[in-house]
Design a protein that fits this description.
Layout lengths: L9 E6 L10 H4 L7 H20 L21 E8 L2 E8 L7 E6 L5 H7 L2 H13 L6 H20 L8 E5 L4 E6 L5 E2 L2 E13 L2 E12 L2 E3 L6
Antiparallel strand pairs: 1-3, 2-3, 4-9, 5-6, 6-8, 7-8, 8-9, 9-10
The structure holds coenzyme A.
Coenzyme A binds next to helix 2, strand 2 and helix 5.
Length: 231
């Protein structure tokens, strides 16, 4: 399901349940040593998806350790992202020479509690959510979708920005056509000869899930980049 949201050159692997026999290499096993069973299962299936995605991309299915901020550490020259929620796990990868950023997120298609919605949105985002609700009621839980889009953007941001982004540091604009844009409200780093100002992504609501994927960067001067030209 999520692969259809990715930019050309990126591939994904997904799972809808966990394999009780899933085994992890030592550098991954130490990340969840002592974790509760549910966390162990989601992490293990996420890493199995990561290796399946790497293999689909024609890359060696190596271990993917975890960095200090919780980020997956992909092999040199590879970018990727992992997500899990109840009933769904996925990983997406691409060669860094083909795709500039990748961030994926899955959420149950359920309402966000009001206090959470308030905490993760800006006034303009809440105004646009009301318009979406009026234009397409029942198509998706729009507040939860916006939350997912911002989490995808954070996962795409982290390898470039290397720091936490607060929910008020970026503003998401969800469009009913299955696309969205997340605009940074803080200065971004230089990317491909321009300054990073935001991200573009795609979303879907299917089978009780909301899936989002960020696969392009927006820079100033205004350019929308999927990947770095290789020639
Ligand atoms: C990190 C975070 C985005 C994870 O999202 P989530 O919905 O809780 O959980 P998901 O299952 O979708 O994703 C978890 C995966 O995210 C990845 N992840 C964690 N930290 C990460 C980081 N700093 N950068 C990139 N990916 C990260 C990991 O692969 C993790 O899975 P793993 O531990 O099994 O490897 C979220 O917990 C968080 O910290 N959000 C606050 C920052 C934010 O989203 N700001 C929005 C600004 S617009």
């Amino acid at each position: 399901m999520i692969e259809g949201l990715l930019p050309p050159g990126a591939v994904a692997a997904e799972a809808f349940d966990d394999d009780a026999d899933g085994r992890l290499p030592a550098e991954e096993a130490r990340v969840v040593a002592g974790a509760v069973a549910g966390r162990h299962r989601e992490f293990t299936t996420g890493r199995l998806c990561a290796r399946r995605a790497l293999a689909r991309a024609g890359l060696p299915p190596v271990a993917v350790p975890t960095g200090r901020a919780g980020e997956p550490c992909w092999p040199e020259g590879v970018i990727g992202s992992i997500t899990h929620c109840a009933g769904y796990r996925a990983a997406a990868v691409a060669r860094a020479c083909d795709v500039t950023v990748l961030g994926i997120d899955a959420e149950p298609d359920l309402p966000l509690p009001d206090d959470t919605l308030e905490a993760i949105t800006l006034p303009d985002e809440r105004r646009r959510l009301r318009l979406l609700e009026r234009a397409a009621p029942g198509r998706a839980h729009w507040g939860r979708l916006l939350f997912s889009a911002k989490e995808s953007a954070y996962k795409a941001w982290f390898p470039l920005g290397r720091r936490l982004l607060d929910f008020s540091d970026a503003e998401a604009d969800i469009r009913p056509d299955g696309s969205f844009e997340v605009t940074l409200r803080v200065p971004g780093p230089q990317v491909d000869g321009g300054r990073l100002t935001g991200f573009g992504g795609r979303w879907t609501a299917y089978g009780g899930l909301l899936l989002t994927a960020v696969g392009t960067v927006v820079t100033t001067p205004r350019q929308v980049l999927v990947g770095t030209p290789t020639n």
